[in-house]
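Hey team,

Filing this mostly as a record. A colleague (T.K.) asked me to run one chain through the structure pipeline before their review meeting, and I want the input and output archived in the tracker in case anyone asks later how it was produced. No errors, nothing strange. Just documentation.

Input sequence:
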Amino acid sequence: MFEGSMVAIVTPFKNGKVDEKALRGLIEFQIAGGTQGIVPCGTTGESATLSHAEHDEVVGITVDACKGRVKVLAGTGSNSTWEAVELTHNAEKLGADGALLITPYYNKPSQEGLYGHFATLAGETDLPIILYNVPGRTSVNMLPPTVQRLAKIDNIVGIKEASGSLQQISEVIALCGKDFAVISGDDPLLWPILAIGGKGVISVTANVLPDKVSQLCRAAYDSDVDRARALHYELMEINDALFIETNPVPAKTALALMGKIDAELRSPLAPLIPENLEKLKGVLRKYSLIS
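Output structure:
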């Protein structure tokens, strides 16, 4: 259900509010570039600083703009189980195709706490659920045996893995079977994860190069190893540049330089320092994304 190239789409702002026109434009850019799924309200979408009303607004706009052409996997996670339930209910009512649910951050729950959190959420919605493991953001690592337990719940259908460990990701794939979608949450590891059995990516880089990320996923699907490897190395420099500072600051800056959004961030995020801005511009010029 959720596979191939999916974009962790930024949330464009204008004068402190969600910029609907820019968001719709970004979605059209993604679909034209071959993106197979739009993921609003994730980390890249600055979900942590969206109000609940803004969260629902972004999901609603995305569902309407996609018009069923591609899947909408709405970020609805929280460190509070019942807040996550509320956000997931709202996304379901708005017509999202699935929910992306991050491990609770700050609380640092045990493995049993993680299982209880996600099992509760799964019981509260009919939406397919993609788990999201990103220890660098949350300070908690959901281990493969916990994922295996959760994979037995009917509507938990996959995991976005951003642990950075190919060994851990391999264990998840081995334990959970071919019907459970393991999705890369790290652009630099996309090709290696696809090579060991991953089903796709939720990509930051796709914000600026949707066609190339989509082509890499397609090459892997077609078992075109040489093409996939070539695209992996072709994307290496832009993957690095988009994490030169905290995501989504470089991605939003790049899109602003490309003329697609305003370069507006939510505090406490701050603009790139001048040195990194110049580095990013240099990389974007190499990829012919700006002149």
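Quick notes for T.K.: Strands lie at 4-8, 13-14, 17-18, 37-39, 71-75, 98-102, 129-133, 156-161, 181-184, 200-203. The mean pLDDT is 97.
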